[in-house]
Amino acid sequence: MSSRDQVKASHILIKHQGSRRKASWKDPEGKVIMTTTREAAVEQLKSIREDIVSGKANFEDVATRVSDCSSAKRGGDLGPFGRGQMQKPFEEATYALKVGDISEIVDTDSGVHIIKRTA
Questions:
Q1: 103 is known as an active-site residue
Q2: CB 85 within 8 A of CB 91
Q3: Residue 77: predicted pLDDT
Q4: Separation between Cα atoms, residue 116 and residue 8, nearest integer Å
Q5: Is the pLDDT reported for residue 85 higher than 60?
Q6: CB 14 within 8 A of CB 66
Q7: Secondary structure tally for the chain: helices H, strands E
Q8: Annotated catalytic, 69?
Q9: Are strands 111-117 and 7-14 parallel, antiparallel or unpaired?
Q10: Active site residue 70
Q11: Integer Cα distance of 20 and 38 in angstroms
């Protein structure tokens, strides 16, 4: 796959009771994840997205503190990826964004995300 067929993105993931894996780097036993409803996770992400879009918060800083994905250590950066490498809803949302855009809430088996396309 050539690099022009790939995209690059960062994301913020909030896991919840319905997530396929109920543990993360910041919640290894999954205690918070198991008590977080999908609705609560969505509300938290909506608030985070508002703060980022309004300029009150920086995407990478928030990802480092809040994201349940191990990519949090890199400000949410997932690096380049191509079609078929991510869960379908995540892939479709990322490819639909223009560079610099931030998605609405994206639901996957992992949890709920906001995605920032970076390349």
A1: no
A2: yes
A3: 98
A4: 9
A5: yes
A6: yes
A7: 4, 4
A8: yes
A9: antiparallel
A10: no
A11: 12
Please answer whether residues 14 and 105 qualify as being in contact, where contact means their C-beta atoms are separated by less than 8 angstroms: no
pLDDT of residue 105: 98
- Is the pLDDT at 74 greater than 90? The verdict is yes
Q: Is the pLDDT of residue 3 over 70?
A: no
pLDDT at 99 over 80: yes
| Annotated catalytic residue within 11, 19, 24, 71 | 11
Long-range contacts of 38-46 (CB under 8 A, 24+ apart): 38/107, 38/112, 40/16, 41/14, 41/15, 41/16, 41/111, 41/112, 42/105, 42/112, 44/14, 45/12, 45/14, 45/105, 45/112, 45/113, 45/114, 46/105
Q: Tell whether the torsion through CA atoms of 64, 67, 71 and 75 is positive or negative.
A: negative
Q: In residues, how long is the chain?
A: 119
Question: Is 110 a known active-site residue?
Answer: yes
For residue 42, the model assigns a pLDDT of 98
pLDDT of residue 4: 65
d(CA 108, CA 18): 10
**Residue 71, amino acid:** S
Is 54 designated active site?
no
